[in-house]
TrEMBL record:
Keywords: Isomerase. It holds the Pfam family D27-like_C. This is Beta-carotene isomerase D27, chloroplastic. InterPro entries: D27-like, D27-like_C. One of its GO terms (molecular function) is isomerase activity. Coiled coil: none annotated. Residues 156-238 form the Beta-carotene isomerase D27-like C-terminal domain. It comes from the Eukaryota.
Length: 266
């Protein structure tokens, strides 16, 4: 994930996770922008159930943009042979997740992460990482600003989230993002897909390409996730996710005989 265009805007986040976020309007009031959750409660569905979303043009545009960039790296399934190429707004979230899954086919963990890095770089203008480093050196302000941007711009990918306080080097700051129930994880149902296609490449991209440390901490018990800007991620071998087993009941490619998700092995 990367910020393509940055403006000096403030995103005051409403306390408590709900089905929207707010930003200030010119008149001084709040503009309510829905995150697209179609559940009657306005909240993500309970664990074991898939949350219903009502995606608009903004969401579908991003799904299409990412999916079409990834399609060139994806394996072609038999049922796709001879089918007409998808139009710009023919992609939905399920097809985006399907493209991600096909990118994994025939690739090991490191190769999958390389593909995601290439896709992310392809979406940025030339010189963007270097410019990002100039605009956002690893300071408290930059970390908090990027946390605030994550909430509105990536709800299409991960669902509703909020900025939370975290501790970085002994200091409290609002550079954490709490994702209540990650849309990507609940739709893929795959631990390896979460780690290889989202967590690790996103951490590496911000930390190494942008120079802004980021650690993502998924909770596989409830599918929540915490993103911590300013925290250097641990080596994969020392990360708790490296020992995570499959979701035996929901993963389409789960190996119930393995204590660790096979997709996490090199």
């Amino acid at each position: 994930m990367g910020a393509l265009s940055i403006q000096a805007v403030q995103f005051p986040i409403k306390k408590g996770l709900d089905n929207c976020y707010r930003r200030g309007s010119r008149s001084g009031g709040d503009v309510r922008i829905r995150c697209g959750i179609a559940e009657p409660s306005g909240q993500p569905a309970p664990m074991g159930q898939k949350t219903k979303y009502n995606d608009g043009l903004f969401e579908k545009a991003f799904m299409t943009l990412f999916a079409r960039k990834m399609e060139k790296f994806a394996a072609v399934n038999k049922e796709q042979i001879g089918q007409k190429k998808k139009g710009f707004f023919d992609y939905d979230y399920d097809s985006f997740v399907d493209v991600s899954r096909r990118v994994m086919q025939g690739r090991n963990r490191m190769q999958q992460q390389v593909v995601v890095r290439e896709v992310l770089l392809s979406m940025l203008p030339p010189g963007a990482p270097a410019q990002f480093k100039k605009l956002f050196p690893p300071t408290k302000w930059a970390e908090e600003f990027n946390a605030a941007l994550t909430v509105p711009f990536f709800h299409w990918l991960v669902g509703p989230s909020e900025v939370v306080e975290v501790e970085i080097n002994g200091m409290k700051q609002r550079s954490g993002v709490l994702i209540k129930k990650c849309r990507y994880l609940e739709n893929s149902g795959c631990v390896g897909q979460c780690v290889n296609m989202c967590k690790i490449p996103t951490q590496d991209f911000f930390t190494n390409e942008f120079g802004l440390p980021l650690t993502m901490i998924p909770n596989f018990e409830d599918m929540s996730c915490e993103m911590v800007y300013g925290q250097v991620p641990p080596p994969f071998e020392e990360d708790p996710v490296a020992k995570q087993p499959c979701f035996a009941d929901i993963c389409p490619v789960a190996n119930v005989n393995s204590s660790i998700c096979p997709k996490l092995q090199a």
